[in-house]
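Narrative of accomplishments. A recurring question from our advisory board has been how the design workflow behaves on a single, concrete structure rather than in aggregate. To address it, we present the structure tokens for one chain from the evaluation set, followed by the sequence designed for it. No filtering or post-editing was applied between the two.
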């Protein structure tokens, strides 16, 4: 026994060292990237607050390692695999990256000092130009090759220029001169720097093509053929990989490119952490509630109405009251599906989804017909007074004192789940509701309280959106944001101390997607695919656990002291979490 305890201590020490190294490394990298080095650190406004938040990120990494232990590696590998698959999807989207070398407006010019032959119905004549656009996007029949006929005499000297019309067009053109039989007399795929200088501004770059001072061999009708050059397979692959690399650089490093972009990540993470905590609480009770969206809307609405009505109340009084009111509104709205589940046996998934619709429509009705100013150009309330907004801790950003609210909620949620009788009952019901009932747990009351407490936390998330980010009530204040909290909770194994890390991680992916879309012109839907892959990988892992436990039950065996995850809330496949059995005894 002593030896096993010694081994356990060494394992814990190894995890602590690993967590500290990982946390400090993350803090260093984030701070270095955000500030562009540490040399000009003191020139940044409120740099101490930025460093403080980064230190909290490092602490979340440490807690992630300590709480999930070696299971943390599985979470990291899940995200890495999803990112790798996402890289492949992004590369597939960029298969036509080299198409820009074959697309764009062009002009073909025919220059000559000779007299223009008197021939009718020719496409071109000396001193004239024709043009068009190659491979126009969304065109029913895009132009891939242009041919123009002209009449010439023996000995006429002509210069033919095929060039793009603007400097920013990257089409790589080639031009050929053909006789009446279709035989190629001269051709060109590029131009020299000297020719660009001589024929400026008609020639734009060396990718333009020019046939210079060619003497026509005989009288007759000639054809000029212009088209984009064929793209070698190596160039196509190179361009695809290059654009994918740029997209992923924007995706993975974009949120750290300055304090402003960093703030977008942090403010999004604060909301997701609150929503992840709300989902984790109810999931721990084995209830698959998805009501956080409606609870968020009610929290935002109640806090916003109070601020608009009592904007002249001192900030020290108004802000706490607004936050408490938002939590109360979420608590009461969460209590309703809990009561329906506990006393009427209503399916919590269906009831919470229906109540979400009621909450969002009620919010829209009040906002549109009661709170929207008459002269407003869009559906939104008045701006909140300064007494009703959460003060920023970093200048010119929306990283506010909500940071401290989130810290408090994380600690309180952990204490609630791990150190209170109601938390023990929630975990008991989550592990085995029949056993909990046999042991004297009032499962009806516990289910109701779990959903209600979850609603209170979700209501605070709504208050953060209204008071900290938008600073007024707007239409669609949350576009299914609460459902993102489900992924945050699943990645955290429903552990309140791990939710900050997974919330930060997931918010980082969302924020990186915005910058990938703006900086690299890659669709935000690529990140949606990555999100879906993460969920599928988690579900696949849960299914393996589920069937393994079924096999154990069929054999009549019991695992003692294992950390096997419980099934998904609502009776589905398992969602790994630190359940009762992992710390307080054995479970099947």
């Amino acid at each position: 026994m002593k030896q096993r305890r010694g081994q356990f201590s060494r394992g814990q020490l190894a995890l602590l060292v690993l967590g500290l190294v990982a946390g400090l490394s993350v803090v260093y990298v984030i701070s270095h990237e955000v500030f562009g080095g540490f040399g000009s650190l003191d020139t940044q406004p409120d740099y101490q607050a930025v460093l403080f938040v980064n230190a909290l990120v490092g602490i979340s990494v440490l807690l992630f390692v300590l709480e999930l232990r070696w299971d943390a590696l599985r979470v990291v590998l899940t995200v890495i695999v999803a990112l790798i698959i996402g890289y492949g999807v992004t590369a597939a989207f960029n298969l036509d990256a080299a198409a820009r070398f074959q697309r764009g407006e062009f002009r073909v010019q025919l220059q000559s000092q000779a007299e223009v032959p008197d021939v009718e119905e020719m496409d071109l004549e000396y001193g004239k130009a024709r043009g068009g656009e190659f491979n126009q996007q969304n065109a029913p029949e895009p132009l891939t090759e242009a041919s123009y006929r002209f009449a010439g005499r023996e000995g006429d000297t002509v210069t033919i220029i095929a060039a793009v019309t603007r400097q920013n067009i990257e089409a790589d053109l080639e031009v050929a001169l053909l006789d009446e039989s279709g035989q190629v007399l001269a051709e060109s795929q590029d131009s020299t720097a000297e020719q660009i200088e001589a024929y400026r501004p008609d020639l734009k770059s060396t990718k333009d093509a020019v046939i210079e001072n060619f003497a026509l061999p005989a009288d007759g009708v000639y054809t000029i053929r212009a088209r984009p050059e064929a793209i070698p397979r190596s160039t196509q692959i190179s361009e695809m990989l290059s654009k994918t690399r740029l997209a992923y650089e924007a995706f993975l490093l974009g949120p750290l490119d300055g304090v402003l972009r960093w703030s977008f990540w942090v403010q999004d993470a604060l909301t997701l952490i609150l929503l992840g905590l709300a989902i984790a609480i109810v999931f721990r009770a084995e209830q698959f509630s998805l009501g956080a969206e409606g609870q968020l809307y009610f929290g935002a609405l109640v806090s916003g109405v109070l601020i608009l009505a009592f904007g002249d109340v001192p900030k020290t009084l108004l802000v706490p009251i607004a936050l408490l009111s938002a939590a109360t509104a979420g608590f009461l709205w969460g209590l309703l599906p809990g009561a329906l589940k506990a006393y009427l046996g209503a399916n919590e998934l269906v009831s919470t989804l229906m109540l979400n619709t009621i909450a969002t429509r009620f919010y829209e009705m009040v906002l549109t017909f009661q709170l929207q100013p008459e002269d407003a150009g869009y559906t939104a309330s008045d701006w909140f007074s300064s007494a009703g907004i959460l003060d920023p801790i970093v200048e010119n950003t929306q990283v506010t004192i909500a940071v401290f609210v989130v810290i408090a909620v994380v600690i309180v949620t952990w204490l609630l789940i791990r150190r209170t009788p109601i938390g023990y009952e929630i975990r008991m019901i989550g592990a085995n509701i029949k056993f909990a009932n046999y042991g004297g747990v009032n499962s009806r009351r516990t289910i109701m309280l779990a959903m209600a407490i979850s609603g209170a936390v979700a209501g605070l998330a709504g208050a953060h959106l209204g008071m900290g980010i938008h600073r007024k009530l707007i239409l669609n204040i949350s576009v299914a944001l609460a459902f993102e909290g489900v992924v945050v909770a699943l990645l955290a194994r429903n552990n309140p101390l791990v939710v900050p890390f997974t919330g930060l991680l997931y918010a980082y992916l969302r924020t990186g997607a915005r910058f990938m879309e703006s900086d690299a012109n890659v669709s935000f839907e690529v990140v949606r695919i990555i999100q879906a892959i993460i969920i599928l990988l988690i579900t696949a892992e849960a299914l393996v656990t589920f069937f393994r436990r079924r096999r154990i039950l069929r054999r009549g065996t019991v695992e003692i002291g294992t950390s096997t995850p419980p099934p998904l809330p609502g009776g589905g496949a398992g969602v790994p979490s630190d359940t009762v059995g992992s710390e307080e005894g054995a479970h099947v």
